[in-house]
Protein backbone atom coordinates (compact mmCIF):
# COMPACT_ATOMS: atom_id res chain seq x y z
CA UNK A 1 0.00 0.00 0.00
CA UNK A 2 1.46 3.36 -1.06
CA UNK A 3 0.88 5.74 1.85
CA UNK A 4 1.58 9.45 2.31
CA UNK A 5 1.55 10.78 5.87
CA UNK A 6 0.23 14.32 6.25
CA UNK A 7 1.50 15.54 9.60
CA UNK A 8 4.47 14.83 11.85
CA UNK A 9 3.02 15.21 15.34
CA UNK A 10 2.27 12.65 18.04
CA UNK A 11 -0.33 10.60 16.15
CA UNK A 12 1.47 10.81 12.80
CA UNK A 13 4.76 9.76 14.40
CA UNK A 14 3.29 6.66 16.00
CA UNK A 15 1.39 5.63 12.86
CA UNK A 16 4.40 6.17 10.59
CA UNK A 17 6.74 4.23 12.89
CA UNK A 18 4.27 1.37 13.23
CA UNK A 19 3.87 1.16 9.45
CA UNK A 20 7.64 1.24 8.99
CA UNK A 21 8.07 -1.58 11.51
CA UNK A 22 5.84 -3.87 9.43
CA UNK A 23 7.41 -2.99 6.09
CA UNK A 24 4.77 -0.47 4.99
CA UNK A 25 6.89 2.68 5.37
CA UNK A 26 5.05 5.78 4.12
CA UNK A 27 6.52 6.97 0.83
CA UNK A 28 6.50 10.56 2.08
CA UNK A 29 5.98 12.72 5.15
CA UNK A 30 4.46 16.17 4.75
CA UNK A 31 4.51 18.75 7.53
CA UNK A 32 3.96 22.49 7.68
CA UNK A 33 7.58 22.87 8.70
CA UNK A 34 10.27 20.99 6.78
CA UNK A 35 12.28 20.34 9.94
CA UNK A 36 9.38 18.43 11.51
CA UNK A 37 8.81 16.43 8.33
CA UNK A 38 12.50 15.58 8.10
CA UNK A 39 12.72 14.47 11.72
CA UNK A 40 9.98 11.89 11.22
CA UNK A 41 11.12 10.96 7.71
CA UNK A 42 14.65 10.28 8.96
CA UNK A 43 13.26 8.14 11.78
CA UNK A 44 11.38 5.85 9.39
CA UNK A 45 13.65 6.05 6.35
CA UNK A 46 11.59 7.98 3.83
CA UNK A 47 11.45 11.42 2.20
CA UNK A 48 10.06 14.68 3.55
CA UNK A 49 8.43 17.79 2.18
CA UNK A 50 6.63 20.93 3.31
CA UNK A 51 5.72 21.91 -0.28
CA UNK A 52 2.25 20.95 -1.48
CA UNK A 53 3.42 20.90 -5.09
CA UNK A 54 5.91 18.18 -4.15
CA UNK A 55 3.44 15.86 -2.43
CA UNK A 56 3.28 12.44 -4.13
CA UNK A 57 0.27 12.44 -6.45
CA UNK A 58 -0.31 8.70 -6.95
CA UNK A 59 -0.56 7.38 -3.39
CA UNK A 60 -3.15 4.77 -2.47
CA UNK A 61 -3.91 6.46 0.85
CA UNK A 62 -3.30 9.91 2.31
CA UNK A 63 -3.45 9.90 6.12
CA UNK A 64 -4.18 13.34 7.58
CA UNK A 65 -2.96 13.44 11.19
CA UNK A 66 -2.76 17.11 12.16
CA UNK A 67 -4.24 19.30 14.90
CA UNK A 68 -8.01 19.66 14.71
CA UNK A 69 -7.88 23.42 14.24
CA UNK A 70 -5.57 23.02 11.23
CA UNK A 71 -7.35 20.08 9.65
CA UNK A 72 -9.86 21.85 7.39
CA UNK A 73 -7.21 24.05 5.82
CA UNK A 74 -4.82 21.11 5.38
CA UNK A 75 -7.55 19.00 3.77
CA UNK A 76 -8.45 21.84 1.39
CA UNK A 77 -4.83 22.19 0.27
CA UNK A 78 -4.19 18.45 0.07
CA UNK A 79 -7.27 17.74 -2.04
CA UNK A 80 -6.50 20.70 -4.30
CA UNK A 81 -3.13 19.13 -5.15
CA UNK A 82 -3.95 15.40 -5.04
CA UNK A 83 -7.02 14.12 -6.86
CA UNK A 84 -6.76 10.34 -6.56
CA UNK A 85 -6.55 7.78 -3.78
CA UNK A 86 -8.30 7.42 -0.44
CA UNK A 87 -8.17 10.34 2.00
CA UNK A 88 -8.37 9.59 5.72
CA UNK A 89 -8.19 11.72 8.84
CA UNK A 90 -7.46 10.44 12.35
CA UNK A 91 -9.45 12.87 14.54
CA UNK A 92 -12.01 11.69 17.07
CA UNK A 93 -14.34 14.67 16.87
CA UNK A 94 -14.01 15.85 13.26
CA UNK A 95 -16.56 14.87 10.63
CA UNK A 96 -15.54 12.96 7.52
CA UNK A 97 -17.74 15.36 5.53
CA UNK A 98 -14.74 17.72 5.58
CA UNK A 99 -13.71 15.79 2.46
CA UNK A 100 -17.10 16.07 0.74
CA UNK A 101 -16.85 17.72 -2.67
CA UNK A 102 -13.04 17.63 -2.47
CA UNK A 103 -12.34 13.89 -2.74
CA UNK A 104 -14.23 10.91 -4.13
CA UNK A 105 -13.09 8.32 -1.60
CA UNK A 106 -12.59 9.34 2.02
CA UNK A 107 -13.15 8.41 5.63
CA UNK A 108 -11.88 8.30 9.20
CA UNK A 109 -9.42 6.06 11.02
CA UNK A 110 -9.54 7.10 14.67
CA UNK A 111 -7.00 5.34 16.94
CA UNK A 112 -8.23 5.81 20.51
CA UNK A 113 -5.02 6.09 22.48
CA UNK A 114 -2.83 8.74 24.06
CA UNK A 115 0.20 9.31 21.85
CA UNK A 116 3.55 11.00 22.42
CA UNK A 117 6.50 11.26 20.07
CA UNK A 118 8.83 10.23 22.87
CA UNK A 119 7.11 6.89 23.57
CA UNK A 120 5.99 4.42 20.95
CA UNK A 121 2.83 2.48 21.78
CA UNK A 122 2.04 -1.12 20.93
CA UNK A 123 -0.35 -0.23 18.11
CA UNK A 124 -1.60 -3.83 17.82
CA UNK A 125 -3.62 -3.25 21.01
CA UNK A 126 -4.96 0.20 20.09
CA UNK A 127 -8.71 0.27 19.35
CA UNK A 128 -9.17 1.76 15.86
CA UNK A 129 -12.55 3.07 14.74
CA UNK A 130 -13.29 3.35 11.04
CA UNK A 131 -15.86 5.19 8.93
CA UNK A 132 -15.95 5.58 5.15
CA UNK A 133 -17.78 7.30 2.32
CA UNK A 134 -18.58 4.03 0.52
CA UNK A 135 -18.08 0.25 0.68
CA UNK A 136 -14.98 0.22 -1.54
CA UNK A 137 -13.33 2.90 0.60
CA UNK A 138 -14.35 1.12 3.80
CA UNK A 139 -12.55 -2.02 2.62
CA UNK A 140 -9.35 -0.05 1.95
CA UNK A 141 -9.42 1.80 5.28
CA UNK A 142 -10.17 -1.46 7.10
CA UNK A 143 -7.15 -3.03 5.40
CA UNK A 144 -4.99 -0.10 6.51
CA UNK A 145 -6.35 -0.21 10.06
CA UNK A 146 -5.67 -3.95 10.32
CA UNK A 147 -2.07 -3.35 9.32
CA UNK A 148 -1.82 -1.23 12.45
CA UNK A 149 -4.07 -2.94 14.98
CA UNK A 150 -5.77 -6.20 15.95
CA UNK A 151 -8.70 -4.22 17.38
CA UNK A 152 -10.57 -2.61 14.48
CA UNK A 153 -14.27 -1.86 14.14
CA UNK A 154 -16.60 0.29 12.09
CA UNK A 155 -18.18 3.16 14.02
CA UNK A 156 -20.48 5.96 12.89
CA UNK A 157 -19.54 9.59 13.48
CA UNK A 158 -22.37 10.13 15.97
CA UNK A 159 -20.99 7.38 18.22
CA UNK A 160 -17.34 8.28 17.64
CA UNK A 161 -17.86 11.80 19.00
CA UNK A 162 -19.26 10.44 22.27
CA UNK A 163 -16.40 7.96 22.42
CA UNK A 164 -13.96 10.86 22.16
CA UNK A 165 -15.67 12.78 24.96
CA UNK A 166 -15.48 9.69 27.17
CA UNK A 167 -11.78 9.33 26.31
CA UNK A 168 -11.16 12.94 27.38
CA UNK A 169 -12.69 12.19 30.79
CA UNK A 170 -10.91 8.85 31.18
CA UNK A 171 -7.47 9.91 29.95
CA UNK A 172 -6.95 13.65 29.62
CA UNK A 173 -8.83 14.74 32.74
CA UNK A 174 -7.34 11.89 34.76
CA UNK A 175 -3.86 12.96 33.72
CA UNK A 176 -4.41 16.61 34.57
CA UNK A 177 -5.48 15.45 38.03
CA UNK A 178 -2.11 13.70 38.26
CA UNK A 179 -0.44 16.95 37.20
CA UNK A 180 -2.25 18.69 40.07
CA UNK A 181 -1.15 15.93 42.45
CA UNK A 182 2.44 16.41 41.27
CA UNK A 183 2.11 20.15 41.90
CA UNK A 184 1.02 19.51 45.50
CA UNK A 185 3.76 16.95 46.11
CA UNK A 186 6.55 19.06 44.63
CA UNK A 187 5.46 22.06 46.66
CA UNK A 188 5.97 19.99 49.80
CA UNK A 189 9.24 18.36 48.79
CA UNK A 190 7.85 15.01 47.64
CA UNK A 191 8.35 13.14 44.37
CA UNK A 192 5.48 12.04 42.14
CA UNK A 193 7.11 8.59 41.92
CA UNK A 194 5.48 7.74 45.24
CA UNK A 195 2.07 7.79 43.48
CA UNK A 196 2.94 5.23 40.78
CA UNK A 197 2.00 2.05 42.72
CA UNK A 198 -1.33 3.69 43.58
CA UNK A 199 -1.97 4.55 39.94
CA UNK A 200 -0.94 1.06 38.78
CA UNK A 201 -3.44 -0.54 41.15
CA UNK A 202 -6.15 1.96 40.18
CA UNK A 203 -5.86 0.99 36.51
CA UNK A 204 -5.49 -2.73 37.29
CA UNK A 205 -8.78 -2.73 39.20
CA UNK A 206 -10.59 -1.29 36.19
CA UNK A 207 -9.85 -4.50 34.27
CA UNK A 208 -12.03 -6.33 36.82
CA UNK A 209 -14.46 -3.79 38.24
CA UNK A 210 -16.81 -1.13 36.90
CA UNK A 211 -15.42 2.35 37.73
CA UNK A 212 -18.31 2.94 40.16
CA UNK A 213 -17.36 -0.21 42.07
CA UNK A 214 -13.66 0.71 42.05
CA UNK A 215 -14.20 4.19 43.53
CA UNK A 216 -12.57 4.72 46.93
CA UNK A 217 -11.58 7.71 49.06
CA UNK A 218 -13.21 10.05 51.58
CA UNK A 219 -16.03 11.29 49.32
CA UNK A 220 -17.01 7.74 48.31
CA UNK A 221 -17.28 6.88 52.03
CA UNK A 222 -19.35 9.99 52.69
CA UNK A 223 -16.63 11.34 54.98
CA UNK A 224 -17.47 15.02 54.61
CA UNK A 225 -15.24 15.97 57.55
CA UNK A 226 -12.10 14.82 55.70
CA UNK A 227 -13.33 16.41 52.47
CA UNK A 228 -13.80 19.73 54.28
CA UNK A 229 -10.32 19.51 55.85
CA UNK A 230 -8.73 18.90 52.45
CA UNK A 231 -10.56 21.85 50.90
CA UNK A 232 -9.38 24.04 53.79
CA UNK A 233 -5.78 22.88 53.25
CA UNK A 234 -6.05 24.01 49.63
CA UNK A 235 -7.48 27.44 50.42
CA UNK A 236 -4.33 29.19 49.19
CA UNK A 237 -4.81 27.66 45.72
CA UNK A 238 -8.28 28.54 44.45
CA UNK A 239 -8.06 26.40 41.30
CA UNK A 240 -7.08 23.21 43.14
CA UNK A 241 -9.64 23.88 45.86
CA UNK A 242 -12.42 24.31 43.29
CA UNK A 243 -11.47 21.15 41.41
CA UNK A 244 -11.32 19.15 44.64
CA UNK A 245 -14.71 20.50 45.69
CA UNK A 246 -16.43 19.84 42.34
CA UNK A 247 -15.12 16.28 42.06
CA UNK A 248 -15.88 15.47 45.71
CA UNK A 249 -19.44 16.79 45.38
CA UNK A 250 -19.94 14.67 42.26
CA UNK A 251 -18.73 11.56 44.08
CA UNK A 252 -20.87 12.33 47.15
CA UNK A 253 -24.01 12.74 45.02
CA UNK A 254 -23.38 9.60 42.97
CA UNK A 255 -21.92 7.20 45.53
CA UNK A 256 -23.61 3.84 45.99
TrEMBL record:
Residue span, Pyrroline-5-carboxylate reductase catalytic N-terminal domain: 2-81
Pfam families recorded: DUF2520, F420_oxidored
Domain DUF2520: 126-250
Name of the protein this chain belongs to: Oxidoreductase NAD-binding domain protein
Source organism per UniProt: Leyella stercorea CAG:629
